[in-house]
Amino acid sequence: MKSVKKLMLGVAVAGLTATASFADTIKIAFIDPLSGPFASTGTNGLHQYQFAADAVVNENGGVLGGMNFEIVPFDNKISPKESLIQLQVAIDQGIRFIAQGNSSGVANALTDAIAKHNSRNPDDRVLFLNYAAVDPALTNDKCNFWHFRFDANADIKMDALTDVIAQNDGIKKIYVIGQDYSFGKAVAAAAVGMLGAKRPDIEIVGNELHPIGKVKDFTPYARKIVASGADAMITGNWGSDMVGLGKAVIENGFEGPIYTYYAAGSGITAAIGESGKGRIRLIAEGQINPPVSDEASAMYKAYKAKHPDGNIDQPRIFNVIGMLAKAIEGAGTADDVVAVAKQLEGMEYQSIWGSKLFMRPQDHQLIQDMHIQVHTDEGVEFDYDGSGFGVVRESTVSMASMDIATTCNMERP
Questions:
Q1: How large is the angle between the packed helices 4-12 and 294-306, nearest 10 degrees?
Q2: pLDDT at res. 13
Q3: Among the listed residues 255, 225, 221, the one whose alpha carbon sits nearest the alpha carbon of residue 241
Q4: CB-CB neighbours of 54 under 10 Å
Q5: Among the residues of 123-217, which ranges form H helices?
Q6: What is the dihedral of CA 41, 43, 49, 54, to 10 degrees?
Q7: What is the torsional sign of CA 366, 79, 36, 321?
Q8: Who contacts 42 (Cβ-Cβ below 8 Å, separation ≥6)?
Q9: First to last CA, the chain
Q10: Is pLDDT above 90 for 285?
Q11: Is the pLDDT at 5 greater than 90, yes or no?
Q12: What is the pLDDT, as a whole number, of residue 267?
């Protein structure tokens, strides 16, 4: 990677790709919520994609002799139906790479639609770059050749979380709560099954789902959790639902650890603040604090210079961009997505955030290190939301679930 000075220069000219001609750009459609209750999550992800395209690819000469990446945003309003409309718009614009992550419900709709489109239109195929939708079914029974997942699935994350929980003898009762859709259900099923296998003495005192993006006041849920006598809590909530739930349970007197998937950045860290110190833990890829290298530190500083109120809270976005660039170079083309997909299959890649990555060919699930991180203001070089609080790595599961079973039976073109 370039020096800090060169990275900062790259930030200064970040808008140049938008003015490049179509022939000089490789477009990536970003289909995620840019309005509504999850707009902050989607917007922050968009900014990270745009910055990564510039810092990783465009300011380093592009790919294929100088072609730049261009991120084209499409607002899906977190709706599967709207996502399918935006997918068709992107395809009609000649875009061959589709990035999406927020909501496995959306991802399930997109992967089905893309598989059907590619079957019917062999000369106009597209690839689905899933950077955050972690329903295990997407790389199991619903897997397909056109879908690649760059985040660990819900089962992989829960396997790592429950390893840590199982070592805590003080936890005897756990409350599981999440959003009522495919991902929330997958988290709950994994929690119950894995805790039962690793710590059969732990009692699940609550297992509850709530409507996604519709609960304005989580106080009734928080009171039930406190009244249950739970020693700890597990949730896969994200976005505004994580903010609401996290604040409510703490304000209503819950004192145990809260194990989460997405309780950092996008306003969540600032909203929870001091009250969550040392109590909120999350499972995630990519180590931000402490930085793993001068290169990673420089990248984060350059991002903050461009987005002072933003965060690199989804480091995997940089992995998506880097691995796609490597695959296109290996294929020698961005037009033949079958050739690009075959380059992604089995790819090994060194993330700037410290982990070796492996795209497992049999199901297109990325295998990587998973970190248990704690919400704190101690030892934080890079905070989130300008709050003074961030997440610091406590422990790591190396190449998590490398040998986990998959039911994927992939058909290849």
A1: 30
A2: 39
A3: 221
A4: 25
A5: 154-166, 182-198
A6: -150
A7: positive
A8: 32, 33, 34, 75, 102
A9: 36
A10: yes
A11: no
A12: 87
Q: Please, what's the b/e burial string for 284-309 (b: 16 or more CB within 10 A of its CB; e: otherwise)?
A: bbbbbbebbeebbbbbbbbbbebbee
Q: Which residues pair with residue 29 across a beta bridge?
A: 72, 98
Please name the amino acid found at residue 15: G
User: Is a pLDDT exceeding 70 seen at residue 21?
Assistant: no
- Alpha-carbon distance of 404 to 390, in angstroms, equals 31
What CA–CA distance (Å, rounded) separates 35 from 184? 22
| Nearest C-alpha neighbor of 49 from the set 25, 19, 29 | 29
List domains and CATH numbers for the chain: 4-152+292-367 (3.40.50.2300), 155-284+370-397 (3.40.50.2300)
Q: Could you tell me which residues are beta bridge partners of residue 280? A: 258
Residue 67, helix vs strand vs coil: strand
Structure tokens at 303: 């991002």
Q: Check residue 344 and give its pLDDT.
A: 98
Residue 197 token pair? 């296998």
Note whether 140 and 407 are within 8 A (CB): yes
Task: Assess whether pLDDT exceeds 60 at residue 6.
Answer: no
Q: Which amino acid does the sequence have at 386? A: G
Tally of CB atoms within 10 A around 394: 12
Mean pLDDT score of the chain, rounded to an integer?
93
Which of 186, 197, 130 minimizes the C-alpha distance to 154? 186
DSSP secondary-structure letter at 379? S
Angstrom distance (rounded) from CA 256 to CA 263 = 15
